[in-house]
Amino acid sequence: METPETRRGGASSADNSAAATDNTAAADDTAAADDTAADDTAAADNSAATDNAAADNSAASSDDPVANLIAATTDTVKLTVWASEEDQTLTTQLLEDFKAAYPDVTFDITLGSESESTAKDTILADVEAAADVFAFADDQINELVQAGALQPVAATYTYDVASANVAGSVEAATVNDTLYAYPMTADNGYFMFYDASVFSDEDVKSLDKMVEVAEAAGKKIAMDVSNGWYIYAFFQGAGYELTLNDDGSNNCTWNADGATDVAQAIMDLYGTNVLVDMSDEEMATAIAEGTIAAAVNGTWRAETASDAWGENYSATKLPTFNVAGKECQMSSYSGYKLIGVNPYSANIGWSMLLAEFLTNEAAQTARFEARGLGPANVAAASSDAVQADPAIAALAAQAAYATPQRVGGNFWAPAETLGQILADGSAGSDLQSVLDTAVEGIMAPIE
């Protein structure tokens, strides 16, 4: 760096001294001025930085709910999760992934086993003692909401639950326009499995045609019509309704004008002894033995059918059936598995975030890969792997003719009896009386 003396050259020592003095004074004044300016600039910069930091913190506080949740967490987050026995291995891994996603938080998460089919009964025995996060079947949602056992999905942490999942699953998770649960799967319904060496793609469009083809081949078709879940397919498909009232009782039009034609159609189909009434377990055995070439069932029997029929294993939506000369598309119940959050959770925010994590696209994809369960998540369901699965694809095709299962407990026994007497031909000729009796039981008041 150059000094003033070097720049000035051959001046005398006195001049140099004076100049040095002058320069020193000038330098001191300049330095002082510079320091003052620097101090002012630094103060301004610090003030701006403080303002910017405050603005950034304010933005983070208002825009990032996960950051807010982490910032508000000072203690260990203790949570209890219930998942089915079949889902334990996958859920264990997902919980480890969840903890790894938030390394700055200490978690103490306990995983318990509880079937989705019995979750409601266990939860309602003591809501406050139930798990923070739990899986359940969608037909239990009304009673859980009435008991105050479900936290509304009132916050969005990582994705929008309503828009990310298929409409039917969101409808199943909603009560009185309020979303109460997180869709986990969309495969708890039924459709038609068939052996493609027996039936063509055209044959399986009509149940009457399938019966004709199966009879010629010496094969049978199975459907558990003495189960209310399945007999619903005929009456709803022909336009006769079954709905749930607010008090838990049912409204049913299965004995309305023309409904006897539906009953007669069922009797005629089962009267062939080609369409046979079989339970799920009986059906599995008959498929494996080779006597059954088609069956109405769900994804849980996909492996059974695939093992039996090999490369001829196929699946499709339910067929039409003939009612007094009119082709009616068979309906079905759509079923979904959901994740709920206990409103009594001591860590409600973390419970909701965990519920999102257990049902996000990655988790639903992992569930399909591990267990073959159909995703409710739109993106996961549209993947090539899911679309290539015959059972899942058939369920998706049937979805347009399916409705969520919303019935009161008084439905099941009368519907089972109705199915039995129509299938075994013991209904006689007075079908109106048979239907009236069934509907009277179905619509019985809640005691």
Describe this structure in words.
The chain contains 20 helices and 18 strands. Helix content is 48%, strand content 16%. The longest helix is centred in the N-terminal third of the chain and has 51 residues, at 13-63. With 447 residues, the protein is of the alpha/beta class. It has helices spanning 4-8, 13-63, 65-71, 88-101, 119-125, 141-146, 161-164, 167-172, 207-217, 228-237, 259-271, 280-289, 302-309, 348-359, 361-371, 378-381, 384-387, 390-398, 412-423, 431-442; strands spanning 77-83, 107-113, 133-137, 174-175, 178-179, 182-185, 191-195, 220-222, 242-244, 250-252, 275-276, 292-297, 313-316, 320-323, 326-329, 332-334, 337-341, 402-404.
Question: What key phrases describe this protein's structure?
Answer:
447 residues, alpha/beta, five-stranded mixed sheet, 20 helices, globular, disordered N terminus
Distance between the termini: 100 Å
DSSP strand content:
15-25%
Q: So how many helices?
A: 20
Tell me about the biggest sheet?
Answer: 5 strands, mixed
Structural class: alpha/beta
In the sheet with the most strands, the strands line up as 2-1-3-17-6
Shape from CA axes?
Answer: globular
The proportion of residues forming helix, as a percent range, comes to 40-55%
Rounded mean pLDDT score: 88
Low-pLDDT segments, ≥5 res: 1-60
Instruction: Find the count of extended strands (DSSP E, 2+ residues).
Output: 18
Radius of gyration over C-alpha positions, nearest whole angstrom: 34 Å
